[in-house]
Design brief:
mainly beta; seven-stranded mixed β-sheet; four-stranded antiparallel β-sheet; 11 strands; 50% strand; globular
Length: 123
């Protein structure tokens, strides 16, 4: 079992920045590829970014490249999502997820999920 806890969400103005964190406990963090997903009201959950177990491989949602950056610190059991130049359309609940398999853009690949953290961007 892995427990994931997100933090760092909140209210930001358009053009500002937020950094989300997700801290894991329960099993060896470096065994898991990690992903960030988001879900806006009335919309399906969508992929944001993913990072491999070692951090050597990263997938990014094409539309977010250049603004959002995923990274991890295995020594701290933590994965991050740096969000820059945020826009109102980035408003959503952001979830981190873990998989023992290789990194993926597909939610079904992930075995463990955090409870989510709300990000609200005002114009």
């Amino acid at each position: 079992q892995v427990q994931l806890v997100e933090s760092g969400g909140g209210l930001a103005q358009a053009g500002g920045s937020l950094r989300l964190s997700c801290t894991a406990s329960g099993r060896t963090f470096s065994s898991f590829a990690m992903g960030w997903f988001r879900q806006a009201p009335g919309k399906e959950r969508e992929f944001v970014a993913a990072i491999s177990q070692s951090g050597s491989y990263i997938y990014n949602r094409d539309s977010l490249k250049g603004r959002f950056t995923i990274s991890r610190e295995n020594a701290k059991n933590t994965v991050y999502l740096q969000m820059n130049s945020v826009k109102p359309e980035d408003t959503a609940v952001y979830y981190c997820a873990a998989t023992i398999k290789r990194l993926s853009t597909t939610p079904q690949t992930y075995d463990y999920w955090g409870q989510g953290t709300q990000v609200t961007v005002s114009s």
